[in-house]
Amino acid sequence: MIHDPAEPPAAAAEPPANARPAAAAQDIDAATAALTLDEDDEPRLPEVEDEPDSSAAQPGAGPMAVGRSAIARAVRLAPTSPGVYRMLNAERDVLYVGKAKNVKKRLASYARPTGQVLRIARMIALTVEVEVISTTTETEALLLEANLIKQLRPRFNVQLRDDKSFPYILITGDHWAPQILKHRGAQSRPGRYFGPFASAGAVNRTITALQRAFLVRSCTDSFFESRTRPCLLYQIRRCAGPCTGEVDFPGYSELVREATDFLSGRSRAVKQLLAAEMEKASGELEFETAALYRDRLAALSAIQSQQGINPRTVEEADVFAIHQDGGYSCVEVFFFRTGQNWGNRAYFPRAEKTFTPEEVLGAFVAQFFDDKPPPKLILLSHEIEEAELLADALCVKAGHKVEITVPKRGEKKELVAHAQTNAREALGRKLADTATQARLLENLAATLGLPKVPQRIEVYDNSHIQGTNAVGAMIVAGPDGFIKNQYRKFNIRSEGLTPGDDYAMMREVLQRRFKRLVTPPAEGDAPAKPKDDDVPQWPDLVIIDGGRGQLNAAREALAGIGLTDQVTLLGVAKGPDRDAGRETLFLPDRDAIKLEPRDPVLYFIQRLRDEAHRFVIGSHRTLRKKDIREAGLQEIPGIGPTRKRALLLHFGTLKEIERASIADLGKVPGISAESARRIFEFFHARPG
């Protein structure tokens, strides 16, 4: 089936929302408090498929003949120009996405009766249809291929996994007192962006050190405008206090300029300037001022010591190095900007055992820059095919020259060797972690008497405050640990539900989850997003946070949709006084199980339950805050229009009222001690 060049590729499915618990710090803006809470998730190690029986791929076999016939039909209609082709199976799942300078010639190579490697032969045997999209140039084909692979996740392609947007540091340019903050997403706000950084942790540590070195504010504009006295960050010397005039405009502007210079690569000049100011203040016997400059210099040194390698001859580059072991691949990526090391991250792309390091690395780099701006220089550990074509494609994308090279000597060679060492060590750690997880799953199966080692465990919990903003959540774990892209939250919808009825909430959540699993999509429904082949969709074990009552409610819910014995259920009841280590485990139609407090299996179950609790509490708080913002202060008993106006005039925004302490609330005209306590408890009630 041949598609018109103007036909858009299949749309990417939206990733599931993953709410994070918000931080609150008294007298510190939430934007600052959040710096410690946004660490990147640990990537999973993908499953390596076992080699199938080669007899299935022998020339002349039935499936092979069908596959070659489908490809031959496509060859007759295929263009001789550049383009992208997709191999589809009988269920219309995309098996493979490829690109070619001459699509007709490339497809004809698949129709040859002999000479195919086993992986390609298996793909041909499963193919029943081929779709083609023509492009104007081979460069366009390369970019489209990378985009489609990331969207469709075909089984026979190398797949970039755990791909998140990278954080940047932004020094804003739309306020007279610029703010320093972490930024993800579109760079639409005026200001200077510095990055990418490898992880949120690297950004948070750098911002904290920059605050100590340059005293630039990190609070939001609304928090800044509402201050009548300096906040805690001023007291601990992490902000110059421009909000209340502790520093004048020229003085603060100079601090911002120094921070910008440091992030722009002029760190040596900035340190020399601070050292000279320290010497001057010391010579004039202004020892407190000299000590302040000393502390700022120490903060800058701390940034550079945390960065590790800072190259002398490489201004801007990304370094990619690959290591393979045991059928797995690890690609380590280092980011260098303005001559500084801005962190590294390990990736574990999914690729069959037959892919060489060069093939994996080439496919990885093309997909990596599909949604990221490439640097001027890309250093690789292995030579890849079509490096010049990829460089040309990235030039078109970035609007500047991009060089891709495998260095042979000098400092660049040392940077690649360092990245390759990190790739080898990261893969070793991941393999060890996977082995530990496998042993825990084996012990769990033995302890609970499961028929097989679970490959997918689902854990359910719910949260509410006196029945309001009720939300349920599911977390998923498997052989490689928590699988966060499979997490789901469920806003409780039942209108007739009694507030606080945990059993009814659990029944609703399980019915919605498993009805979706057992009900095939209706004709005309939007196609489901591509499934992750590494993660089974049906759970081997379902864990409920609760005792025998919750377990029975879960059994009733599953029985109502015809799943009486198809799902293994486990209830985990907290110990007396909610003590960890004294939990009781409940299985249907069996006596309760009490494990020894130091049993590794009990620790494992506790960790699963605690992760579910963390996720559902975060989801509940997000929902509740949205509800509060929409409803306003009228929901608080005893707070009418007059007091609401007084609170808003004093604090400026609803968010600041939420952060205020009881003592601060009591200072508002017209707010009594009892009203202050009621307002505080409304915002800080503990969810159930």
UniProtKB/TrEMBL annotation:
Residues 319-558 form the UvrC family homology region profile domain. Residues 9-36 have a biased composition (Low complexity). One of its GO terms (cellular component) is cytoplasm. Residues 80-158 form the GIY-YIG domain. Residues 37-53 have a biased composition (Acidic residues). One of its GO terms (biological process) is nucleotide-excision repair. One of its GO terms (molecular function) is DNA binding. Keywords: Cytoplasm, DNA damage, DNA excision, DNA repair, Excision nuclease, SOS response. It holds the Pfam family UvrC_RNaseH. It comes from the Bacteria. It is found in: Cytoplasm. Residues 1-63 are annotated as: Disordered. Residues 268-303 form the UVR domain. Belongs to the UvrC family. The UvrABC repair system catalyzes the recognition and processing of DNA lesions. UvrC both incises the 5' and 3' sides of the lesion. The N-terminal half is responsible for the 3' incision and the C-terminal half is responsible for the 5' incision. Interacts with UvrB in an incision complex. This is UvrABC system protein C. It comes from Rhodopseudomonas pentothenatexigens. The lineage of its organism: Bacteria, Pseudomonadati, Pseudomonadota, Alphaproteobacteria, Hyphomicrobiales.
